[in-house]
Amino acid sequence: MSRAEQREQTRRALLREGRRLFAAEGYGAVGLSQIVTAAGVTKGALYHHFDGKAALFRAVLAQVQKEVGRRVAATADAETDPWDQLVAGCHAFLAASTDPDVRRIMLIDGPAVLGWQEWRALDEAASARHLAEALTGLVEAGVIAEQPVAPLTHLLSGAMNEAALWLADSPDPQNLPDTLAALTRMLESLRA
Fold first, then answer.
1. Which part of the chain is the HTH tetR-type domain (predicted)?
2. Beta bridge pairs of residue 134
3. What is the Cα–Cα distance from 86 to 143, expressed in whole angstroms?
4. Cβ neighbours for 164, distance < 8 A, ≥ 6 positions apart
């Protein structure tokens, strides 16, 4: 195995074990020693790839956000009508966010570890941009009443993030279908 392959294997192991531990125990409860032991590497190897635990967490969060984004995009892209794409994508986001690992890393520890501003910037780059693009297209097509898209994007994104947190803490399996129905009614109220 080449040195480049070894480095990539080490990086993948750190991301995999960091993610597993952050999801299971939360960022604050996980120490660097625990991560490097689980990954089977040294602290020096971790510092070769990341500036520390926060940098590893940032990389794990980016990975989780990309995975959720791909799931949302795949679900939305399965629809042909732009309105149906929006609804399907919003539903897919809520469904993905009920995964305890996603909830813990993306919605709870993400803002706490990175700070609100950095987390919002990452969230904006990962998902809010796509939501804004979808809403812009629907406004331009006259499907949604003419209005500024930026506040609408932030309102919908915030509502879905809050609903995702609530769903993840809820033991009632009926809450997901009820929340999806409420979201659909909220989205329908936007139609022109």
1. 8-68
2. none
3. 11
4. 93, 94, 97, 98, 103, 107
Q: Does residue 173 surpass a pLDDT of 80?
A: no
DSSP 8-class letter at 146: S
| CA separation for the pair 75, 57 (Å, rounded) | 27
> What confidence tens digit (pLDDT) does each residue in 25-71 have?
999 999 999 999 999 999 999 999 999 999 999 999 999 999 999 99
Q: What is the pLDDT of residue 95?
A: 92
Q: Domains, the chain, ranges and CATH?
A: 1-50 (1.10.10.60), 54-189 (1.10.357.10)
Phi, psi of 5 (to 5 degrees): -65, -40
Closest CA to 63 of 102, 96, 93, 37: 102
Question: Which positions ≥6 away from 143 have C-beta within 8 Å?
Answer: 82, 83, 191, 192
Integer Cα distance of 129 and 17 in angstroms:
29
